[in-house]
Amino acid sequence: MLSDGIISLRALEPIDVDTLYHWENDPGLWSAGVTLAPYSQKQLWDYVNNYDGDIFSAKQLRLMIDLHPDCDNPDSRVTIGTLDLFDFDAANSRCGVGILIAAPYQRQGYGLRALELTSRYCREVYSLHQLHSIVSADNTASRGLFEKAGYSISGRLRSWLRLANRYTDAYFYQKFLQ
Hints:
GO molecular function: acyltransferase activity, transferring groups other than amino-acyl groups
Keywords: Transferase
Domain N-acetyltransferase: 7-178
Strand content: 35-45%
Radius of gyration: 16 Å
Helix content: 25-40%
Largest sheet: 8 strands, mixed
Number of domains: 1
CATH superfamily: Gcn5-related N-acetyltransferase (GNAT)
CATH architecture: 3-Layer(aba) Sandwich
Organism: Duncaniella dubosii
Order of helices and strands: EEHHHHEEEHEHEE
Number of strands: 8
Pfam families: Acetyltransf_3 (PF13302)
Structural class: alpha+beta
């Protein structure tokens, strides 16, 4: 388990199905990802139970973000978000990063902590050279988060994302780890 004493990043577990169901079926979050339709609980149950956490074979890794439990009550764990590593490319030593922090926990530094833990993990465990993310030009909060985490804009993708009935530009962010 990856932890900084405030948050922990952990593997996906069957207990996460209900949380994922809530997040994956929130149309307000669809513009930040690639989802265009709701998922059933069975689809998510199958996903979690057949999940391959080996980034080398699956080319992706989903981690759940938890607030560190109270020492006196280990059951006090609260899942506040999820972090995805995707498009893992061992040959070129890079990987994409996506992050979701649930609304009640946003703007409290948890996203930054998760990105910092992920950078350290990817550098130390996978010896990655870089991480990258594509962020909508309209998503100033996410852009600010990635910039605080040490990512830099390396390009602008014109008319890259469709949001409802319009297209918006996106920025390609990179962070070099080594």
